[in-house]
Design goal:
- 34% of the residues lie in helices and 26% in strands.
- The protein has helices at residues 16-26, 53-65, 91-101, 130-141, 163-175, 180-199, 204-220, 272-282, 299-302, 316-324, 337-349, 423-436, 443-464, and strands at 2-9, 30-35, 44-51, 77-84, 105-110, 120-127, 145-152, 228-234, 240-245, 252-257, 260-264, 289-293, 312-314, 358-360, 367-369, 372-380, 383-389, 399-403, 408-412, 472-475, 481-484, 487-490, 495-497.
- Strands 14-13-12-11-10-9-8-23 form an eight-stranded mixed β-sheet.
- A hairpin with a 4-residue loop joins strand 18 (399-403) and strand 19 (408-412).
- The relative contact order is 0.09.
C-alpha cells in the first residue's frame, strides 16, 4: 500500500463530495487527509489516500471519467460582459442554459429592471478553454445584444471559484515555467500547511500571501534588485573579515588571509551570481577559496554551497536535513508538516544548490567549550578555530565556530543582533515565522543555547581584556557586534553596496 495525493475539482452542488468519497471506498482507497474550504475555493478539494497501485489507478480513472479530477493548471479565461435579455418569462433560464452547456463557472450576476440599465444583465464567468469562450460568444451573439466589458486570458481577473488555479499561476511566475504535474503536487503541499495553520487560527489568505511574498521578495531582490550591507574588519595586518548581509536571509562571512580564503555560510542559491560580483567589488579572489564552513542546513545559510566547487564542511545533522529536505529532521517536531513543506518551498524559491563535495565533522568530542562539545578544529592563516556542536535548539546539526585567541565567534542563528536588522530584512524574516509559527525547532533548547553562548562570550571578553580586545560576535543575521553589558552593539562601520547598472 502507498500514499497518494490528488486534487479533485468538483461542482458546487449537493452530493459531489459524497460521490468522490464513494469512488475511493469502492476501490479500497483509505482517505487519511481531506481539505475543503469554500471560503478559499468552492470547487477544489485536496485528498491524500492509501491504496495499492491498481486501486489508485482505478480511482483516478473514475474521477477523471466524471470530470472531477484536476489534471491541469492552465489559466482559466475570464470573461465579463453585458447582455440584453428579453423582458419575458424564462429569459434568464434560457440564457443560463447557454452558460451551463459551455461548461462555464459563473462568478458574478447583476440584473435589476428598476435600475437605469433596464434590461441589461452583467455577467462574469470563467472557462477552461479559449475554444469554449469562442463557442459561447458565437452562441450568445446569435441570440442577444452583447457588450464585452473585460476578457482576460492571463489569470489576473480570476475570482475565488478558481482560486487555486490563479495561485498556481502566481507560483509559476516565481519558479519559472514548470509542468502541471509538479505544480499540482506543490499545491497539495501548500494546501497541507494552509490546513494546519487554519487549524491553529491563522487566516488562510494570509498564509497564501506569505508564501507568494517570500518567493517574490527573493526574485525581486536578485539581479537588478540586489544590494548588500558590508562590514570589513582587519583582524591583523594580513587578514580581513568580511560580513555580507544580502537583501534576505543569512549572512555570508569571508576570512581573507594571505593566499587563503575561507567562507562561513554561503547564502541563498538565488544570490550566487550577485555575490560573485560583490566579492569582485571587494577584491576577494575566489581562486584562493579553500572551503566553506556551514553553520546549519537552512537554505539561507548553505543554499549556494554547490555552486562554488570547493569542499563544504558541515555536521552530519546538516547533511541529513539537506538529504531529507526537512529542517525539522532530528528534532522532536520531525513530523511537523509546517517545517517539512516550508523547507521544500524555500529551497525551491531560493534555487537551493546543495553542497556536493562535503566533509562531515567527526562525532568524537575533543573537549568542551562551555556547554558545547568541540568536534573539530581548523586553521585559517595563523588562527585556529574550534567547531562547537549546538544543542539543536534552532536546528539539529547547527554548529558554532570560535577562535578564542583572536576573539571571534560565529553563532549561526542562535544569537542575533536584531536591532541591527533593516526594516526590509525584519519583514522578510517574519514570513518564515508566519509559515512555521517558530524558526526554532525546540524553543526551550534555543533559549538555553543563547544563554550558553553569552556565557562563553563573557568569559572570552574577560580573557581578552588583557589585550584590550572584545570578542567579535558574527551572527547568522545582522551586523557583526560586540557584547556591551547584556546588549549587542554594532562593531565598526557598515557600507551599503549597490551594484552598478549596465
Amino acid at each position: 500500500m502507498k500514499k497518494f495525493s490528488f486534487i479533485a475539482r468538483m461542482p458546487n452542488e449537493p452530493g459531489a463530495l459524497h460521490k468522490a468519497a464513494e469512488i475511493a471506498k469502492d476501490y479500497n482507497g483509505n482517505i487519511h487527509r481531506i481539505h475543503y474550504n469554500r471560503k478559499i475555493d468552492p470547487n477544489t478539494v485536496f485528498f491524500e489516500i492509501t491504496a495499492d497501485d491498481s486501486s489508485y489507478g482505478k480511482i483516478m480513472d473514475k474521477l477523471d471519467e466524471i470530470g472531477y479530477l484536476q489534471t491541469t493548471l492552465k489559466p482559466a479565461n475570464y470573461l465579463k460582459f453585458n447582455i440584453s435579455l428579453p423582458h419575458s418569462p424564462g429569459a434568464l433560464f434560457e440564457f443560463l442554459n447557454c452558460i451551463t452547456s459551455a461548461g462555464a463557472n459563473i462568478g458574478f450576476l447583476d440584473f435589476d429592471d428598476k435600475s437605469n440599465r433596464h434590461d441589461k444583465l452583467t455577467v462574469a464567468l470563467t472557462l477552461d478553454k479559449i475554444s469554449s469562450v469562442d463557442t459561447l460568444l458565437d452562441n450568445l451573439k446569435s441570440r442577444y445584444l452583447l457588450e464585452i466589458v473585460e476578457y482576460d486570458t492571463e489569470g489576473e481577473k480570476l475570482d475565488d471559484n478558481v482560486f487555486y488555479i490563479f495561485f498556481a499561476q502566481k507560483l509559476r511566475e516565481i519558479i519559472g515555467n514548470t509542468e502541471d504535474d509538479f505544480l499540482i503536487k506543490l499545491l497539495g503541499d501548500v494546501n497541507h500547511i494552509v490546513q494546519e495553520l487554519t487549524r491553529l487560527g491563522e487566516d488562510p489568505k494570509r498564509v497564501f500571501e506569505s508564501i507568494l511574498l517570500t518567493g517574490n521578495t527573493l526574485k525581486d531582490t536578485s539581479g537588478d534588485g540586489f544590494y548588500a550591507d558590508i562590514q570589513k574588519i582587519d583582524l591583523n595586518q594580513d587578514t580581513q573579515l568580511y560580513c555580507f548581509q544580502p537583501p534576505c536571509g543569512g549572512n555570508i562571512f569571508v576570512i581573507n588571509a594571505p593566499e587563503e580564503v575561507v567562507m562561513v555560510d554561503s547564502g541563498y542559491g538565488i544570490y550566487y551570481p550577485d555575490i560573485l560580483k560583490l566579492f569582485q567589488h571587494c577584491g576577494i579572489d575566489l581562486k584562493n577559496l579553500k572551503g566553506i564552513y556551514m553553520t546549519h542546513a537552512d537554505a539561507d545559510h548553505c543554499g549556494a554551497g554547490g555552486f562554488y566547487g570547493v569542499k563544504s564542511f558541515l555536521h552530519r545533522g546538516t547533511s541529513d536535513i539537506i538529504e531529507k529536505s526537512n529542517r525539522a529532521y532530528g528534532s522532536n517536531v520531525e513530523e511537523s508538516v509546517l517545517e517539512e513543506v516550508y523547507t521544500k518551498l524555500i529551497n525551491l524559491f531560493s534555487r537551493f544548490n546543495s553542497p556536493a563535495d562535503v566533509n562531515i565533522f567527526s562525532e568524537n568530542v575533543i573537549k568542551m567549550r562551555g556547554s558545547f562539545p568541540v568536534v573539530h578544529t581548523f586553521e585559517v592563516g595563523d588562527m585556529e578555530f574550534e567547531v562547537l556542536e549546538s544543542l539543536g535548539g534552532h536546528l539539529y546539526g547547527q554548529v558554532f565556530l570560535a577562535c578564542p585567541d583572536e576573539g571571534i565567534i560565529f553563532t549561526g542563528d542562535s544569537l542575533i543582533n536584531f536591532d541591527s536588522l533593516s526594516e526590509d530584512r525584519r519583514r522578510y524574516n517574519l514570513l518564515a515565522k508566519n509559515l512555521m509559527t517558530s524558526v526554532n525547532v525546540d524553543r526551550k533548547l534555543a533559549k538555553a543555547e543563547r544563554k550558553a553562548i553569552l556565557r562563553i562570550i563573557s568569559k572570552l571578553n574577560e580573557e581578552l581584556s588583557i589585550k584590550d580586545k572584545n570578542c567579535l560576535i558574527c551572527s547568522g543575521h545582522g551586523a557583526v557586534s560586540l557584547l556591551s553589558g547584556d546588549k549587542l552593539k554594532i562593531y565598526g562601520q557598515i557600507y551599503h553596496y549597490l551594484p552598478k547598472k549596465m
